[in-house]
Design goal:
The complex is a heterodimer of chains A (108) and B (120).
Chain A (H helix, E strand, L loop, with lengths): L8 E4 L5 E6 L9 E5 L6 E4 L13 E6 L2 E6 L8 E8 L6 E3 L3 E5 L1
Parallel strand pairs in A: 1-9
Antiparallel strand pairs in A: 2-6, 3-4, 3-7, 5-6, 7-8, 7-9
Chain B lengths: L2 E4 L3 E3 L5 E8 L8 E6 L5 E8 L4 E4 L8 E5 L4 E6 L8 E8 L7 E4 L3 E5 L2
Parallel strand pairs in B: 2-11
Antiparallel strand pairs in B: 1-3, 3-8, 4-5, 4-9, 5-6, 7-8, 9-10, 9-11
The chains are: A mainly beta (108), B mainly beta (120).
Chain lengths: 108, 120
């Protein structure tokens, strides 16, 4: 079955830039989406269609795509950005939704 | 305002049946797919499946096909996730989700989650 691969953890100091990657063979053909999940809360969409930002999401969140890898970038990381981040896409047929395994962002 | 309101936490024994719900409001319930996502304790998000309440077209993730049943009652704008025989491994938080637009396969709207605990 199709898989999206994320690093288990990323650590950055406040004010630095965090980059979280997500790799999958179908990403050149399918959009990627990113969700932020804080403890005890439902996930929140932070990036859609590779690089679009929903209203209400801070400008420091951005997304990009290159080949089979998509990247969520958080510029000027703040303590409140500490959370789990999940990428989501679909298989090459577009039929099956898939989530990545998640990345825990730690703000040092 | 779009809202997905899920039923409350459940504690069940192995072998029991269960049906949890997700009530949509603030939009045309029959015009948007509603999906279900599992999150086991301390683990990541897993896609379970999705239903189109307008015609009950239902699609399951291969991992969950045959393990659960997704249904909807459009007369009361409610989607359901049910099990006929629970296992301890079904212990998880379950979220219902709705896409931003009808044809999208990403999810702007999430329910608050229903915690299901299966223990003898």
């Amino acid at each position: 079955s199709y898989e999206l691969t994320q690093p288990p953890s990323v650590s950055v100091s406040p004010g630095q830039t965090a980059r979280i990657t997500c790799s999958g063979d179908a990403l050149p053909k399918q959009y990627a989406y990113w969700y932020q999940q804080k403890p005890g809360q439902a996930p929140v969409l932070v990036i859609y269609k590779d690089s679009e930002r929903p209203s209400g999401i801070p400008e420091r969140f951005s997304g990009s795509s290159s080949g089979t890898t998509v990247t969520l970038t958080i510029s000027g990381v703040q303590a409140e950005d500490e959370a789990d981040y999940y990428c989501q896409s679909a298989d090459s047929s577009g039929t099956n939704v898939v989530f990545g395994g998640g990345t825990k962002l730690t703000v040092l | 305002e779009v809202q997905l309101v899920q039923s409350g936490a459940e504690v069940k024994k192995p072998g029991e049946s269960l049906k949890i719900s997700c009530k949509g409001s603030g939009y045309s319930f029959t015009s948007y797919w509603i999906g279900w996502v599992r999150q086991m304790p301390g683990k990541g998000l897993e896609w379970m499946g999705i239903i189109y309440p307008g015609d009950s077209d239902t699609r399951y993730s291969p991992s969950f096909q045959g393990q659960v049943t997704i249904s909807a009652d459009k007369s009361i704008s409610t989607a359901y996730l049910q099990w006929s025989s629970l296992k301890a491994s079904d212990t998880a938080m379950y979220y219902c989700v709705r896409p931003r637009n009808g044809g999208d396969n990403y999810f702007d709207y999430w329910g608050q989650g229903t915690l299901v605990t299966v223990s003898s």
